[in-house]
Amino acid sequence: MILGLFLSAVLLCLTSASSELYGKYLSGFTFASLDKMGKQMCVRECQSYPGRCKSVNYNRVHLSCDLNTDSATDKPEAILDREGSTHITISILANNSVCGDLQCSTQEKCVDKKSGPSCVFIGCDLPRIKNAEDNGGILMYRKTLQCKTGYRALASLMCSERGLDKNATKFRCYKEVDQWTLIYRGQSGGTDSDYLSFISNGTSDETNENVKDEYCASITKSPLCTTNYRTSLIDRWESLDISQVQVALYKNGTKVVDLVFNGTGTNQESWFSPSQILSSSWSDVLSNQTYRYFDLEGHVTPGQWRNFQIWKSYGGCPNDRFWMASSYAEPGKACAQEQTSTKQYIYCPNTTHCNFEQGEYTNNATINIICSNVASLLKQYEL
Fold first, then answer.
1. pLDDT band at residue 98, thresholds of 50, 70 and 90?
2. Euclidean distance between the first and the last CA atom of the chain, given in angstroms as a whole number
């Protein structure tokens, strides 16, 4: 009978100290995920973090428990449907049931010892870092910060009893493309010059939360992205010892152009040169080929530009012989096909250069610039 009264008291405390939403979970605010536990244990675990945990997502199918820094009360827009899941908001009263009046910091967990509740250091506070698995703003003790799947860091960041071992604000997560590192991505449409965007030092979209990578770092053009994507690695080009650089043009998500350059000993412009060519979609893009233009900036006049221009000769628009360019022209400028007052990508679909009239013009394309030799970058990059 005494045991039965004790269990009833615990259940009453947990129920009255929380509110439950069945078939729901809170998305985006989990700082720790646990498994192999019951619902009451999940709630008690949250109560052990009075300075941080405000709710849990409990999954009765997988017996998993997510501890959250926010709740449905504060973030109702983040509540989503999920079968088998229950979202439980933990009240202040519930937290007191474990720790009493003891107030632990956001870096501590309350542990109930024989001598009474005690605050134990569990991790380091983190600023928000784009595309990092930041565990709700805390890096657990002796853990190394990880980037989300599809991204990689160029340096490590670890939490010790002394705090973070490096400056967290300089930790960056870079998009991976086929195990290369994305440094620039442009897309057709708009009037932004790819050349000017590429050389504009100080732009670091890998840290800009307003630039959505799912749209602006994708190989497919998206109406939800209205800007070029540039990383700050371009600013550090000469210190990174980049071995190879790839330029890839995608049309409707399919790669139609592929150029690989030797990046060793180059700067942010000199790599785009026939002397640096390693491989190409075209058999006649060679170091000893004759070019009218092979230039990152290309042919620029008022109201018209051709960036990333690889051109064999000018002979009047129908008779120009070329390979590719990022093109913009206003009415009356350049060739008729280019006079759209918006950026488009043009390329030769053949295996060698072709006449301009044979070229493909697309306003549904993206251009990616990616670099290799990440192992070397990891050694040289310092926070």
1. low
2. 62
